[in-house]
Amino acid sequence: MGSVSSRPAAPKGVGASPFNGIVALKRALRLRKNSDFQRVRQQGRSTTSRLLILAWMPNSEAGILVGFVVSKRISKRAVVRNHIKRLLSEAIRPSLDELSGGWDVVISVRHQVIDADLRDIIHDITTLLRRARLLGSLEPSG
Predict the structure, then answer these.
(1) How far is CA 11 from the centre of its chain?
(2) What whole-number distance in Å separates Cα of residue 30 and Cα of residue 123?
(3) Which of 11, 41, 90, 119 is paired with 65 by a 20 to 30 Å CA distance?
């Protein structure tokens, strides 16, 4: 019979995910160990914005590793916390090619991120990366 689904298509808007097109960073680009997060947050430097806290520290590798922290204080629902992490991944993705290598970066969110959209998060991440001198100055877009 083949691989044709006998399931009827859902009406437009029903069953559609609000997360379409937003995926997490590749595993090779992410900090994963709790000890790495602790090391960067305790021994590294940090700067803050209205939505985010950026902590960074040199690493012994050539590449950049990024980790995201979304506390249960932000939302008790894992779905919401994971959505915020996906937004953060999507927001930092355009800057990855322009970041200088050899850094571990941890981005923690503040409560105001609940009301922010992707554009606000992108702006805050770019601002913080420039302030930390991890990102060169970019031409303004628009």
Answers:
(1) 32
(2) 21
(3) 119
